[in-house]
Each structure stands twice: as C-alpha cells, then as structure tokens.
Amino acid sequence: MNKKAYLELTKPRLVLLALLASISSFYMASKGALDTALLFHALLGSALVGGGANALNQFIERDLDAKMARTQNRPIPSGRVPDKKALLFGALFSLGGLLYLFLFVNKFTSFVGFLVPATYVFLYTPLKRKTPLNTFVGALSGALPVLLGWTAVNPSLNLEAMILFSILFAWQIPHFLAIAWVYKEDYLKGGFKMFGADDSSGQTLGWHIVAASLVLFALSLAPTFMGITGLTYLFMAVFFGVNLCGFAIYLATHRLSYAKQFIYASIIYLFTLNISMVVDKAG
C-alpha cells in the first residue's frame, strides 16, 4: 500500500487550510476557557470528512485529471492508487468523519459535515463541466469549515457565524478567479467551464476580481461593527484589505500578468485576517 499516494488523495494542504478556518471559528464561538478536547474531536472529524470528499472528487475527475499537466501526476491518473480503492477510501473517510462528528461533537456539526461532500462532490464537481457558476458553489463548500468549527461549540447558526462564513465565502471568489486564469489552458483541456475561459485579454476577468475583492473588503469590516472583534482587527482588516484591493486593480490594469502573485497575496491576507480576529476577539 502506497501510504503517500493515499495521503495525496486527501489533498492535505487544502485540509490544513480548512482546519485553520475551523480553529479560528471554534475560538471565536467559545466563551471562557477553550475546550481543547472538543476542538480535537471537531478537527479530527472535519479532517476525515474533508479528506474523504477530496478523494471522491479525484475519483470522479480521474479521466479529466489525466488530460491536464497540473493534475496528471495525481494518485489515480498516475496509477499509484486503483480507481476502486480510491472510491472506497474516499467513502470510508467521509462516512467515518460524519459518524465521528455525530458521536464526539454533536448532531448539528455532523449535518454541516454532511454538506461538505454533498456540495463539493455532488454539486461543485459535476458543475465544473457545465457552468462557470461552479465557482460560487465551490466557494459555498469551501466556507463550510467555518461552520464546522462554530457549531462544534454552539450547535446553531446565528448572525455572527454567518458573517464569518460570508467572509471566507467571499475570499474564495477573487482567489479562484485568479487560479482560473493561471491554469486556464489546463482547464480548457479538461473541459472545465471556468470564468475567463473566453476572455483572451484577461481584462474582464481582472475587473471581476476587483469587484469581488471590494465585496470581500466590505464584509471583512463587519466583525468589528457587530461587536465580534475590536479596533485592532478593524485596523488590520482595513490596511490589508486596501492593499489587496489595490493589488486587484493593478492586476486588472496589467491584464492579469501577476495573477499567480495575487493568489499568494490573497492567502497571506486571509491568514492575517484570521490571526487578527483571534487576537482581537471581543469579550
């Protein structure tokens, strides 16, 4: 058994980013001392669900992955993991994670966990070959880790939870639009319908990134005005938000020549925003 190949099926870097979002929201939802045992259970269950969903996604897209240079060395198209074993692995991880969340966290978090494969595997994955609107469905799925962390502490959804969810949802739009441009040729070979596929100059897509960045900037200010965070967070959100929007405008006026750098900048922005939120949590 090639353990490294099976680990690759889970897309560990994506799982890690998702867990960081869950940790942040878990902390923001907590009152008083942090329940580290509950946090451990929530993260383990979430990692299993997310890793399983990623494996199922690769199983479904195995033929398309073989056509693209970026993905042709993934475990299934490269032959390191057989198709049926990848399917079984993904299903067991996803179902095991849901059961773990149900038993060791709570029913509501388990339900939110169910939405991860439901939206990512059964909606986002097939929609990638049908409509560019798949980006928004993928962003919905990608923002669910926030709710996994929040509901582990507070098994209900309130306005504060939805604000944190909306920030991560909005962040993914400019981030993945930039990714769609960088890997445009690969996506075309794979038959994926992505925004910017018919934009030869990148000008229209660039201004879409600007618009999405401005929406993200506006949403990022909400935690302070809702009393979730303090003024330190607000200062950091304004400072880094203005810089990200400025970079987006520069990107649009230079025909996306620095799209790859924007991807990295957006990751730094999100990491900084989450750290600032945790450090300056109100109450």
Structure description:
The protein has 283 residues and is mainly α. The chain has 2 domains: 1-155, UbiA prenyltransferase (Tetracycline Repressor, domain 2, Orthogonal Bundle); 158-283. 76% of the residues lie in helices and 0% in strands. The chain contains 13 helices and no strands. Helix 2 runs antiparallel to helix 3. The chain is flat. The termini are far apart. The mean pLDDT is 95.
Short description:
By secondary structure, this protein is mostly helical. The chain has 13 helices and no strands. The protein is 76% helix and 0% strand.
Please supply descriptive tags for the structure shown above:
mainly alpha, 283 residues, single chain, Tetracycline Repressor, domain 2
Give the N-to-C terminal Cα separation. 50 Å
**CATH class category of the largest domain:** Mainly Alpha
Q: Major beta sheet, specifics?
A: none
Query: What name does the CATH topology of the largest domain carry?
Result: Tetracycline Repressor, domain 2
C-alpha Rg (nearest Å): 19 Å
Silhouette: flat
Q: Which structural class best describes the helix and strand composition?
A: mainly alpha
The CATH level-2 architecture of the largest domain is identified as Orthogonal Bundle
The proportion of residues forming helix, as a percent range, comes to over 70%
Give helix and strand order, one letter per element, not per position: HHHHHHHHHHHHH
How many beta-strand runs?
0
- The CATH superfamily of the largest domain turns out to be UbiA prenyltransferase
Number of helical segments with 4 or more residues = 13
